[in-house]
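User: Sequence in, structure out. Go.
Assistant: Echoing your sequence, followed by the structure tokens.
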Amino acid sequence: MTHKVTKALSAAILRMLRPLVRLMLRHGISYGTFADLAKWVYVDVADKEFNVAGRKQTVSRVSVLTGLSRKEVARIEAIETPDDEPVVQQYNRAARVISGWLRDERFSDTEGEPAVLPLDGADSFSDLVKDYSGDLPARAILDELVRVKAVDLTDHSVKLLTHGYVPAEGEEEKLHILGTDVALLINTIDHNLEHTETKPHFQRKVAYDNLPEEILPVLRELSREKAQSLLEELDRYLVKHDRDSNSEIKGSGRKRAGLGIYYFEEDVSEDK
């Protein structure tokens, strides 16, 4: 790696770490905890992704790759890593229910919008959960959607209030989104760096740095409307080819693919 590349990558890491460290400090994650997590990832990636073809990965090779001692590699490999699988399952199931509510005509009104659903009976909320959330009880999904303020519940019906599962409350779910979405963005950038001779994965943004504060409310709403429309269009396409939704779909391999969109705004200091 050339000095220029090392310098550019180091600068990029510092920018990336600043908001992450701010988040960790806010939640009481010490440097020692972060350092152990970073070491664990170094060891795990070196072990699983940088092995020599046809040869079993060894502690000694992982030690050489990571710069950690063999004793430290062995210690790190014994650390039990945090598991957010229950949060992942809860997030995925709730998101699938809302997605089905948005695009399945059985749960839409005459104008094609998500209908206000009865709790039980034909084309009810219970039917929606059964079709899109597997064997999880409808009440469990309903309680979750009420908790994150995604639905409005009356005595006999449920109204959808949002076009996506973005928890308004609950730090565990929001932190799960941090882990998945940021990782996917970095994976895309890594792919584009490593595959310069092939068609890159789509990665774009539009930004200006001398905007008056007064235009931001309009920009937020415009961004939300345009982005939501595109995501719903892609959702309708993808669900037709998803084997979990259509068991008759054929084809080789198993891939995860999609598109992520985010909005940002921040102050610009006068010395920039």
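User: And one key feature?
Assistant: Residues 37 and 82 are 9 Å apart (CA to CA).
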